[in-house]
Amino acid sequence: MFTSDLLKNKRFLVTGGGTGIGRALAERFLQLGASGYICGRRVEVVQKTAAELLASTGGVLEAFACDVRYDEDVEKVIEQIWAAGPLDILVNNAAGNFLAKTETLSTHAFSSVIGIVLNGTINMTLACGRRWLAAKHPGMVLNIATTYADTGSAYVVPSAVAKAGVVALTRSLAVEWGGRGIRFVAIAPGAIRTEGAFSRLLP
Ligand code: HXC
Ligand code: NAP
Predict the structure, then answer these.
(1) How far is it, in rounded angstroms, from Cα 95 to Cα 92?
(2) Which residues pair with 12 in a beta bridge?
(3) Are 127 and 74 in contact (CB under 8 A)?
(4) What is the Cα–Cα distance from 8 to 30, expressed in whole angstroms?
(5) Would you say the CB of residue 159 lies under 6 angstroms from ligand 1?
(6) Atom 10 of ligand 1, nearest CA residue
(7) Which residues does the chain have with pLDDT short of 50?
(8) Contact at 8 Å (CB) between 154 and 108?
């Protein structure tokens, strides 16, 4: 469907790109001629994935350890990336989730998931967005939502509220920054049998 050079000269970052859907997105971007970066908390996972995708696609991919919850971590990684040139595509894919009865959850359980999904998306989007706007460089942000972001969902409430926030952020900034060349897109995948999701949601 796409020509193999569709993303030639485009530079991307996929958060949580060491596993699952993020890894698959990074692989496809490389196949379409882009070069880029993946990040996650576990450095050994992202480095192994980068080595495997380099070997299978022949593309250019670097891996960073980064916890998207912490804006100092995010700033450091984005600064390092920008030193080699601006990104064109940011994919906010990193997420945390688990199945639980909401009345059993601690404040930390809520803040852990909301920190990854919502604050992580905000941190990355602002770090890239400020740089794109200052340089008048076009940018594209792809946020990974869920089908229950609009409906809510029992037993995954921290994730549901965080993903609803991600969708609100996407819609809001599409308007606020769209006219200045920053495009926002969100996709809500159906159930996809990744180890990360299914080990936690169908334990
Ligand atoms: C209740 C839980 C819990 C569980 C953790 N906690 N798991 N509470 N039930 N199953 C609580 C802990 O007790 C702790 O609170 C707090 O949450 C933080 O837990 P930690 O283990 O210290 O946090 P951390 O190591 O940062 O791990 C974050 C995580 C973990 C979200 C808990 O699951 C993770 O690392 N996930 C990353 C990958 C992931 O979740 N992938 C799936 C995405 S799938 P206390 O109070 O005890 O300190 C997805 C699909 C959606 O989003 C759509 C499907 C259709
Ligand atoms: P996954 O393999 O568990 O992916 C989550 C990734 O996020 C992991 O690589 C994880 O790596 C990374 N991550 C978690 N916390 C992080 C943090 N604080 N900082 C940086 N990276 C972090 O699960 P997946 O199924 O591919 O999910 C990918 C995306 O799709 C998520 O946004 C999820 O909500 C969404 N989604 C999935 C499904 C599904 O059915 N699979 C359905 C709808 C939406 P580390 O642990 O090394 O940090």
Answers:
(1) 9
(2) 36, 89
(3) yes
(4) 9
(5) yes
(6) 98
(7) none
(8) no
Q: In this structure, how many other beta carbons lie within 10 angstroms of the beta carbon of residue 145?
A: 19
Count of residues making up the chain: 203
Q: C-alpha 106: how far from its chain's center?
A: 26
Q: Find the residues whose C-beta lies inside 6 A of ligand 2.
A: 15-16, 18-22, 40-42, 45, 66-69, 93-96, 116, 120, 144, 146, 189, 191-192, 194, 196-197
Q: Is the CB of 105 under 6 A from ligand 1?
A: yes
The string of DSSP codes covering 142-154 is: EEE--THHHH--T
pLDDT in tens, 157-187: 999 999 999 999 999 999 999 999 999 999 9
What does the alpha-carbon distance between residue 136 and residue 182 come to, in Å, rounded to a whole number? 9
- Encoded tokens for 133: 């706007």
Q: Please state the atom number of ligand 2 nearest to the C-alpha of residue 147.
A: 43
pLDDT of residue 203: 74
Catalytic residues: 148
Q: Which residues contact 20 (CB under 8 A, 6 or more apart)?
A: 192, 194, 195, 196, 197
Rounded to 5 degrees, what are φ and ψ at 90? -115, 125
pTM for this one? Answer: 0.98
